[in-house]
Amino acid sequence: MRRRPTQADVAKLAGVSQATVSLVLNGPSNARARVGEESRRRVLDAMRETGYAANPMAQGLARGRNRIVGVFTYESVFPSDGSNFYHPFLVGMEAAAFDVGVDLLLFTSAPVTEGRRRLTDAGWNRLEVADGCVLIGRHGNDRELHELRERNYPVVYLGRRDGDEDGTAPYVGADYATATEEITRQLMELGHRRIAFLGDLSTAPSARDRVAGYRRALESEGRHPILLAGDAFSPDEAAEVIADHRATAVLVGTDVDPVLLRDAADQRQLGLSYALLGEPEGRPWPEGFSGFRIPRGEMGARALRLLAATIDGDDTVDPAQLLPCQIDQGHTLTAPHLPSTSTSPARSPHA
């Protein structure tokens, strides 16, 4: 199938910038006048030669018919609490929306069913108020994504997505695999031989990426993983299981309260090292902890800009973007300590 011509193709043939093409097509009258008649003629000639047809949604966005983009979260809506996990994403999107010149619309009318929502349940009349939508949440809906594509409704995921039968939807995510591998290697360099992973073991891409980075670091040194589901244990139970495995360090997922875990481990005099795999959900970063921080503000801004490019039919922008996480050295990455023998009787380790 022949690729549809884009504004970038028109700009190249006309010998002008893509911004000039956009001004000729969509800019306000005072801006179009600055382009000049000669450049305008070359752009129009290039459009005819390439067969370029402007995306009607993009025209609506740029000419002011809507100039609105949606935001939808699968798990919950954005609260106003600044410590909420989603809040920095929205702050980044707000800043980028100001630069791009659009308004944000938060879709909140879709009903919650079994803890999740579907964007399309809000109704197409509501969705078409916006020229496209940023989708946020661990568990996207592939069937809904197919339906959105069938209607040519532009969407961008905030968070890495796997490909499906229709290909990979545009996304901006965090490079959890690389960050987890790096922090695990730091622990090994400090002398830790048994490092536990306590966190999300689901099939969500963000969970699988963290586990993949952990495994990659350990396997390069011939070490065995100790995988513990964060939602399966209370802090006391988790500390006991970590002691049973004779681990001296633990990678703490975002679904685990690291302060409660440390308190439980300290009561057993385990002397653990800790590394957080992102900000704990619903809590601020605990003082002094080591680990990596998720670039949530930048992810939100990039996702909004990627959506604007998708609406505009600009295929020069990378549709699959992973941003590096920031390592926070903190004070909980230390050399291993031998666990106290005063803990409860140890069960046979599984690794």
Automatic annotation (TrEMBL):
Residues 331-351 are annotated as: Disordered. The keyword Disulfide bond does not apply. Residues 339-351 have a biased composition (Polar residues). InterPro entries: HTH_LacI, Lambda_DNA-bd_dom_sf, Peripla_BP/Lac1_sug-bd_dom, Peripla_BP_I. This is LacI family transcriptional regulator. Keywords: DNA-binding, Repressor, Transcription, Transcription regulation. Residues 5-63 form the HTH lacI-type domain.
